[in-house]
Amino acid sequence: MRALYTAATGMKAQEYNVEVISNNVANMRTTGYKKQRADFQDLLYQNLRRMGTETSDDGTIVPTGIQIGTGVKLASTGRVMSQGSMENTGKELDIAIRGEGFFQIQLPGGATGYSRDGSFERDQNGQLVTIDGYQLDPNITIPENTRDLTIAPSGKVQGVDEAGATVDLGQIQLARFVNKAGLEAIGDNLFLETDASGAPQTGNPNEDGYGSTQQFFLEMANVDAVTEIADLISAQRAYEMNSKVIQAADQMYSTTTQIR
């Protein structure tokens, strides 16, 4: 009886679904986190009577046929790249992106990571770095005695030096991708370029479709608690229904073995 194995694939699929939901809920307060969604596909079908076959010498065609499905599989855990809510932190080195684009981060070994997490700090050399100490690319250095730091929506970084003069400190650039959902998440709020994402296209904020930079703000996770709980309940009920199918199939097996 294939129903046992078909229902088992349904239970396994919902286990994956709950795991994805749990990761979303766990990252509700993660800066720049983009939620995931479990997508499923039906498995192969067994054709007991193929549609379109002829049933007589006159060319009579079977209109529908008989196909028995074998269950479901996890097809992808696509990432939803919608804008997260903006939170005012009051910290001058916190930068949010409103719209398209990613910060470019120099990773150890020379690779470039991409992030929506704009919680930056200054290192011992005055360079703008992430919480893990990775430099922003292009590199921006803020001299020790610089005050009244200003980061414009265009990404231009300025400050006031000891003499009271306004000085340009650098230009933040953003990267965007044809398929940003194809980026590979590696943890630490970082993504890597893949063949699926396409090559990065870089430009200045607020120009040519790139998003703007917002100083004193951070972009929070785009996870909606109510939606995740509703999805969790739905996954739980689907899991229970598949378990009921297994119980029913087992009872039918038991009835068959008891026939004398």
TrEMBL record:
GO CC term, one of those recorded: bacterial-type flagellum basal body, distal rod
GO biological process annotation, one example: bacterial-type flagellum-dependent swarming motility
Residue ranges occupied by any Flagellar basal body rod protein N-terminal domain in the UniProt entry: 4-34
Record-annotated Flagellar hook protein FlgE/F/G-like D1 domain positions: 96-158
Subcellular location: Bacterial flagellum basal body
Pfam families: Flg_bb_rod (PF00460), Flg_bbr_C (PF06429), LlgE_F_G_D1 (PF22692)
Principal location class: other
Keyword Iron: no
Presence of keyword Disulfide bond: no
SUPFAM superfamilies, A to Z: Flagellar hook protein flgE (SSF117143)
UniProt xrefs under InterPro entries: Flag_bb_rod_N, Flagellar_basal_body_rod_CS, Flagellar_FlgE/F/G, Flg_bb/hook_C_dom, FlgE/F/G-like, FlgG_G_neg, LlgE_F_G-like_D1
Domain Flagellar basal-body/hook protein C-terminal positions: 214-259
Assembly and interaction partners: The basal body constitutes a major portion of the flagellar organelle and consists of four rings (L,P,S, and M) mounted on a central rod. The rod consists of about 26 subunits of FlgG in the distal portion, and FlgB, FlgC and FlgF are thought to build up the proximal portion of the rod with about 6 subunits each.
Family from the record: Belongs to the flagella basal body rod proteins family.
Protein name: Flagellar basal-body rod protein FlgG
Species of origin: Roseibium alexandrii (strain DSM 17067 / NCIMB 14079 / DFL-11) (Labrenzia alexandrii)
